[in-house]
Amino acid sequence: MGSAFQELIEGWDGEQVAVRYDADLATWMFIAVHSTRLGSAGGGTRMRVYARPEDGLADALNLSGAMTRKFAVCDVPRGGGKGVLAVPRLFDGEERIELLHRYGDFISSLGGLFTTAPDMNTSERDMDVIAERCEYVVCRSASNGGSGSTAPATARGVFYGIRASVGGDLQGVRVLIQGVGAVGAILARELEAAGAEVVVSDVDPSRVFGQAVDPADVIGTECDVFAPCAAGGVIDSDTVERLRCRMIAGAANNQLADPALADRLHERGILYAPDYIINSGGVLHGAGREMLGWDDATLELHLRGLGDLLLELYAASDGRSPVHAAEALVARRLAGAGELRQ
Ligand code: NAI
To answer: Which residue from 35, 52, 122, 173 lies 20 to 30 Å from 87 (Cα-Cα)?
Structure first.
């Protein structure tokens, strides 16, 4: 193992990492199990081209911690994990099927330690293919017996989170959505239907509609709510000073490049809805549908509960960023003593 891998893994607060290198497909497979305190680990599998394999490993490690937090917040008996397929290019056709089969074998070899779901560049159809070789998969396509895409539930959870955070009335509230893919596009429609003024931005011009801003201008654009729904790390030491919004509330995972930036946002008077709370609708969907037997109405109730939970955390913030109250909630849940309930 190279020193970059060693440094990343030894500096991580999780439990274990499984690594497989597939020479035929020139693909690194990483499965990071951050915590099994609440149950065996669950998390999406991301397929992505990285400049270096250690960037893929870093993604798996960081994203697995967010999954531990999401399951704890949602009170679901699962631990946090994440899979990353660091590919030389995004495969399709037979090559993609072969990769997913080999990945399914890899997950199976862990004997149930990790169960996966879709994430960036993997779909419910990909889960169907993994499931041909492995039983530890959720969110297969509905036609194949799974619960399907998590995007609508994630968007709905973010919608409820934004609505609660602005005080319940979205009429005339200007929301800037960065990334109108699976989640962002649904969120945009729901916000518009509730009377919000929606502004969108996407690097893919074919996805843009209505009032739009150039991706390069997103950070300096004035709005009430900035909703990152593209990639993580969008708030860094530079962008945090240039934001012109009252609030950040969106679907992307790990929106802060450094967790300490939450305090800087607070100093600037920008309310930050912790990402792993507002975007946990996908977890509620996957676990609710496939582990807990929820129907539509029960899922909806829990998605709405994310807005209520955010309000509880804001109230418990004690003049600090709500991130601290959120972390305290996670710590209590992991310790087995839930006080704040959804
Ligand atoms: P997606 O891949 O369908 O959409 C992302 C969109 O962002 C694409 O349209 C892409 O062109 C655009 N984009 C990428 N970079 C951009 C940039 N710099 N500026 C503007 N647009 C940019 O992904 P999806 O499923 O909509 O997820 C969005 C985010 O939410 C991701 O970060 C994902 O990890 C996170 N998330 C998604 C969940 C889900 O259920 N799909 C659950 C929890 C988090």
So the answer is: 35
Question: Is there an atom of ligand 1 within 6 Å of 207 CB?
Answer: yes
* 3-66+79-144: CATH superfamily: Leucine Dehydrogenase, chain A, domain 1 (3.40.50.10860)
pLDDT digits (tens, 9 = 90+) for 67-89: 999 999 999 999 999 999 999 99
Listed in order, strand segments (DSSP E) in 106-158 are 114-118
Domain boundaries, the chain: 3-66+79-144, 151-281+291-298+306-332
Q: How much distance in Å is there from the Cα of 113 to the middle of ligand 1?
A: 27
For residue 331, report the distance from its CA to the centre of ligand 1, in Å. 28
Please give the distance, rounded to the nearest whole angstrom, from the Cα atom of residue 184 to the centre of ligand 1.
Answer: 7
Task: Give the pLDDT band (50/70/90) at residue 342.
Answer: very low
Whole-model pTM above 0.85? yes
Q: Does domain 151-281+291-298+306-332 fall into CATH 3.40.50.880?
A: no
Q: Which of 277, 180, 169 is nearest to 227 (CA)?
A: 180
Residues 21-31: tens digit of each pLDDT = 999 999 999 99
In three-state secondary structure terms, 326 is helix
In short, whether 151's Cβ falls inside 6 Å of ligand 1 is yes
